[in-house]
Predict the structure.
Amino acid sequence: MDEVEPYERYSGGSPEAERLVFERLARELLRVQLKVRRRSGAAAVDRTFHAKAALGVENARLRFREDLPEALRAGFARPGAEYPVTVRLSNASGARRPDFAPDLRGAALRVEVGPGESHDLLMTSFPVSHARDAREFVAFAKAMAGADSRLRKGYALFLKLPLAVGWPTAARMRRNVVAGTRRTVRSLALETYWSRGAILWGDRGPVRYQLRPAADAPPAPEASRTDPDYLRRELSQRLRQADVVFELCVQRYVDARRTPVEDGAAEWHEGVAPVLPVATLTIARQDIHTAEARACAARVDLLAFNPWHTSKGFRPLGNLNRARKVAYEASSAHRLGRRFVTVEPRRNALLGAPLRAGFRTVNRFVPWHRLPTPLGLLNLMAFRQTLRRHNLIDTEAHEAPPEAGPVEAPPDEELLVRRSYDGSYNDLSAPRMGAVGATFGRTMPPVYRPDLFDSPNPVTVSRELLRREAFIPATSLNIIAAAWIQFQVHDWVKHKRFPVATRSVEVPLPPGGTWQNTPGGPHEAVMRFGEDEAVPAPGGGRPPIVFASDVSHWWDGSEVYGGDRSTAKSLREPDGGAGLRLEEGHLPGGSNGVPLTGFTDNWWLGLSAMHTLFAREHNAVCEALRHEYPRMDEDRVYHTARLVVSALIAKIHTVEWTPAILATETLDIGMKTNWQGPPKNWLDQLGVWLLEANGRQGIPKTLPDHHGAPYSLTEDFVTVYRMHPLMPDDYELVDHRFGRRLDTLDFAALQGAATEPLIRKTGLVNTLYSLGIAHPGAITLHNFPRALQAFRRDGEVIDLSVVDLVRTRRRGVPRYNDFRAGLHKPRIRRFEDLSSDPETVARLRDVYRSVDDIDTMVGLFAENPPTGFGFSDTAFRVFILMASRRLQSDRFLTVDFRPEVYTPLGMDWIERGGMTSVILRHCPELAGILPRGASAFAPWRPVQPVRNGNGRG
């Protein structure tokens, strides 16, 4: 049987290329499900095929023959072996039509061999498929979806299908369909069912299998032409009188010409491949109308049968079968409410392309931010569509070719209404999507150039272009905005890294330079820090530029709650209480001087204030839930409070922090549109209606949508959120009541182990006030904090600016000019195109050989941003894509953002809440100080110092 493997031919030339084809076809089948539902008026999405069951039982038995030929003894197929079987008999259509309507019939068996081993056998009442391969199969399904009348069927078979597959193929498919459906079926117990494709039969090679009625099966009455359920009634009467018995038979592979594996439309003729009985299937005599039997039938109807639910030795073969794994998994997940499909309105599809082309032309002369606000918003929506089509690159290693495996257990019911600890099961159809350990995606193809890792020398780049020479403030913001974004980034991204002692990156210093890599350590000619841990490629076939995140990719508050069960449990109140542990309103201390919370890297006063504030907020939500719902247990209170606080954080970032740092009317409207839908004026409503009608009520009222690529945050996203210039080097702590200075400290004095004693001494109120009245740094060149260029952490001394440059290079993020081009911006040709400052241009020339060598971070910092923007337009393009994606992909911020999951109180808390309300709930003393009519991230009103009688403070 060594001929089998050569005759498995992969579409596109490789298993991975074929997988991508199958993924696209599976998405098309999901749209077929929706179309059938819409045409049939069904209350819910049904199976793509075999929607109407006539029988579902769990008490059948499969017994292999005592005289099973030696040549067919393999695996579970052993003489005399007997196994319990679940059986489902059905009509083949995806719509629940009357039994007398022309149709094929189907049989699905689940043979339970033992723990962890079962075998799904799927068959249809015609020897061959109407389709040779998956592409033809999906084309037929799309053409026939909703064809529930003779006129529609004719239109589908004689016009839509030929246009999709060609006239000769359409004619062959019509012949097979007509031959299979024109017979009158009297009883499903008297039908023969064929496997439609080959499977391996252990080490005995390929077979096709069939289920045929026992030779002595009683006849059936004439088929009804009026009873829509006569097949079920006939089975009911038959089973009341006796067992229903079938023979399971196989046909063995002969050769590629007469018994092809890849061609699903080719029959294995009995004269070439004889039919060999191997086992008997017995459906026991019973009454299928009892309450117990009806409950059993309902359970069977929920099952997801798939021929890949088997063992490796019995794996399915051929293109159609390989497609079935992806297609059946997607279809089942869609039917069970674990996967979702958003259908783009036809007008959006038709108008989208010309609008995108039109704005591309306009933007050559006028950038989006200089257009009138309504046109600017429309421009951004059009551009976001371009990015979704071209800038979502999946980096996960997927199963290709498909692998057989056991039936997966359904998700824990609790995971339907709460976030998991590690981000798994957010997408119920892909449980590991976005979870801890999921890989960072890409917004553009990576560029892996080990020869340029140290060129130009990153230490030189840092000293010439990044080092802060004089503090440049961002006067439209306060330092809480700087603390906030670090608070958020800790929730979103963290690369896995080797300890520096295990595996390090060594960056050579310029000639004559030295560096102390540990406090008080020797002077060395290299800087040293821990290397990122790359994800190995299957078979070692790609460079080491795929990395996994040590935190989940979802907006789930993991920086507060932790990213695993053990951490989350340790942060809760004793004895399973719902609240987070606090000591006199502050985070409890840890053994290393840093407090106990979900994420403590790079700890400093601003982070401590954010963590303390939202730990208190969690406890306030818990208290409100207990009061409103006294019967709710503490575990449910905890998880509901986590949902509420995480969603509130997402809302604050979307509608408050983002418009504060990107302070334009266009962005203010755009971000609020993401959360709550467009303004009620007709022009904004029209724009959304034209381009993205599914978002007319805001993303939280839509279905999850990954836009063609599994959800992940990307390496490019990590790059544009390198915002360390926001951090000042020195800080003034001020009393909020009298405006009196309490202390002036450098960064070293309020970070690491020094943080918690300081915030307890200063108090949360004075800490927030001190950060609220001071400005962060501007995100620009020559403004990287000096304190972070000799930053002590975990026994190391690092220059964080050098680390940022080196990690970006080593992660394969394209250099700045390629980065621009990847985001559909014109390349720069001269250094003067990047900056209008002559000194900066001169330094760029000194450091870089050409504009194509400019580091991404340097280019992003050097750009002149749009008016009101706190960072560059190039960085903003990644933001456009990811800002909505983080909401749109998340089940708990879309389809499950509802009172049944969050509780009515929780929904109201989020609706009414914001950064100002959170601060005032826990620091009401600040009510007269926070900005009026602006977000809490805008500069606060400083209290004038109280002076004594002689005019001095």
Q: What stands out?
A: Residues 493 and 606 are 19 Å apart (CA to CA). The domain at 5-335 is CATH 2.40.180.10 (Catalase HpII,  Chain A, domain 1). The first strand starts at residue 53 and ends at 64. DSSP finds 27 helices and 17 strands in the chain.
